[in-house]
Amino acid sequence: MLIKRTRGWEIPERDATPEWAYSRRHVLAAGAGLAASSLVSPLDAAAQTPADPNAALYPAMRNMRYRVDRDITEEKIATTYNNYYEFGTSKTIWQAAQKLPLRPWQVKIEGLVESPRTVDFDDIMKAMKLEERVYRFRCVEAWAMTVPWTGFPLASFVEWCKPLSGAKYLQMETFSNPAVASGQRASWYPWPYTEGLAIDEAMNELAFIATGIYGKPVPAQQGAPLRLITPWKYGFKQAKALVRFVFTDKRPSTFWQTLGEREYGFWANINPKVPHPRWSQASEELIGAGGKRVPTQIFNGYGDFVASLYDNRQNERLWA
What we know:
This protein is an alpha+beta fold and 320 residues long. It has a single domain (16-310), classed as Sulfite Oxidase, Chain A, domain 2, CATH 3.90.420.10. It contains 10 helices and 12 strands. Strands 3, 4, 7, 8, 9, 11 and 12 form a 7-stranded mixed β-sheet that branches. Strands 2-1-10-5-6 form a 5-stranded mixed β-sheet. The longest helix has 8 residues, at 154-161. The radius of gyration is 19 Å and the shape is globular. The N and C termini lie far apart (43 Å). Residues 1-39 have low confidence and may be disordered.
C-alpha cells in the first residue's frame, strides 16, 4: 500500500486558491473604480510595454524541489492584488506601477566586496541561470497566495558579487523616482525602501531573486525587474525593484522597522503564535477563495529549510 507522507511545507489541495474567484477583500478594495480599471487587464498592460530582451528566457524549467500542496493562485488575481507603497496604499495599484521605466536599469554592488561596481540588469541576467519555483506568499496583513516565481537563487548572486569575509549582512535598496511613484512624495516615509538579510539567510537555498512570474517577465506592480523572495518571512521583507546591494558588517535599519519597530522587526519570520500588535497571525485568508481562512504555519511551512538559521539567535526578536 502506498502511503503518502505530507511534508511540513505542504497543505491539502482542497485548500487551494481557485482560479477565477475574487476575494471579498479584493472587491471591496477596488470599490467603484474596479469597472474602469478592468477595461485594460494587467496582462494587456504588460504587452504594451517595450519589448523585453530577456523574454525568450521564459518560461524556465520548474524546480520540483519547491512544490507545495496548494493550487497556484490565478494569475489575474495575483497581478492585481498587490502592496506597493511607492505607488499608493491601495491593493489596486497595478496600473499606476506601469509608469515605472524598466529600461535602462542599473544595479549598484557596494560595500564589503572585492570590486564595487554598477552593472546593467541585462548583464545580471546573462550571468544567472533561471528556474521556476512555486512558493507560498504570506503577507503580514494575514492574507496569502501561492505563486510561481522565475528567477535565480540569491546565493548565486551573492557569490557573483564576491563579498569579503567581513560581510555579515546584505542590505538591499529599491528605486527612487518620485516623478512617477507618487507614494515616494510622501515625506513621512523613509524612502527609498530598504531591506536586509543576514548573510546566512541570503545564502539559504530558499532565498530567491525573482525576475519573472507565471512563465513570463515579472510585471512592474510585482517588483520588476528584480525582486527579493524569502517565503519564510512576511511579505514586507520581500523588496521590489531593487537597484542597490550593499554588503556590510552592520545590521541595516529597514524601511518598516524605521517606521515602527514595535510592529515590524528585522527578522520578520512567520509564526502563528506571535500576533501582530493589532491582529492575530494564527490564520490567513487565501486570496481568491471567497474569504476562506486556513491555519498559518510557522516559517510559512518552510521550517525544514530555515529553522536551523535561528538556533543561535533565540535571544533575538525573530518574529514580526
